[in-house]
Amino acid sequence: MTTTGPQPSYEILRREDFSDVTYLLEVHHPRMARSARPGQFVIVMSHPEGERIPLTIADFDRDKGTITLVIQAVGKTTKEMQQSCRVGSRLHALVGPMGIPSHIGKAKKVLCVGGGLGVAPIYPQARGFKESGAYVIGVVGFRNRDLMFWEDKFRAVCDELIICTDDGSAGIKGLVTEGIRQAIASHPDIDECVAIGPPIMMKGCAEATRPHGIKTMVSLNPVMVDGTGMCGGCRVKLQSGIKFACVDGPDFDGHEVDFDDLMSRLGRYREVERQATARFEENCNMRAEFVAASAQEGGQSPD
Fold first, then answer.
1. Which residue of 77, 114, 117, 252 could cross-link 51, Cys pair, CB 3.0 to 4.6 Å?
2. pTM across the whole model
């Protein structure tokens, strides 16, 4: 059957590069912006032959009809998107919002922790808790000052903000777990902690809060294919049994997650990803050399 009429258009309205590997895309999708909730994610295809990749929604604006994605160019597809996704271009497919929204309950004092790329998706969580009337303590961690972003956005929704950097170039020197330690020392009445970031970071956060009995929710992003629970690739081992991040999550009780199993599963395709990235970069270099050679033959500058 042939479908007629206008096709969906997922236009990129804004792009911002935070560093040489981290970039923001603001995408026009009014229906998704109206439906999105903190903690949810989307599955993106940048072009018809592209890979389907899950990305957490970093922000959404119902009035503008946009969703915001913050991406780190670490593999073949995200590096390809870094080159091709420009203002005015369009994503081929954008499915979502997917996953169970984060539970923004009646907690009176909440600790929102983001590390690395997890800083972006912790923002709507912090905003959601603030809008619910909670006292919000933000803890965000970066390797150094040059990689920092959204400090102003976080200060607008957090009652307190603790910035951590590995080298001490901004805020306190140390990991986000040091920020958690300081926050708990000043606020022994914290009701809940939400942590998003690399698995090793979330594991550290869960262990930092465990002795204090603070409920700790983490957002997991394991290998995902279809996003409907059919493939089983995103299964997560908990103390209570096996769950699937795409339909049962992505939020889980951090004190129940088997992080060692999660990290082992994430590493199984590392060599395949490395080979795909190497092929992509080789093709990019070959294209650049061809363009430069063609320009020289034509007596023109490659710029």
1. 77
2. 0.79
Q: How far apart are CA 185 and CA 278, in angstroms?
A: 46
Nearest CA to 142 among 169, 103, 121? 169
The pair of three-digit structure tokens given for residue 174, joined into one six-digit string: 């140390």
Site of tokens 């493939």:
231
Rounded distance between C-alpha atoms, residue 142 and residue 76, angstroms: 23
Mean pLDDT along residues 131-154: 92
Render pLDDT for 223-260 as a digit per residue (tens, 0 to 9): 666 666 677 677 788 888 888 877 887 889 999 998 88
Kindly list the distances between the CA atom of residue 272 and the CA atoms of 49, 134, 211, 224, in Å, as whole numbers in the listed order.
18, 44, 39, 15
The full set of domain ranges for the chain reads: 10-98, 109-266
CATH topology of domain 10-98: Elongation Factor Tu (Ef-tu); domain 3 (2.40.30)
Terminal CA-CA length for the chain: 46
Q: For CA atoms 86, 287, 54, 177, give the dihedral sign.
A: negative
Residues 65-84: what's their mean pLDDT? 87
CATH no. of 109-266: 3.40.50.80
State how far the Cα of 198 lies from the Cα of 173, in Å rounded to an integer.
19
C-alpha to C-alpha distance for 6 and 139, rounded to whole angstroms? 44
Local structure of 194: helix, strand or coil: strand
CB 15 within 8 Å of CB 87: yes
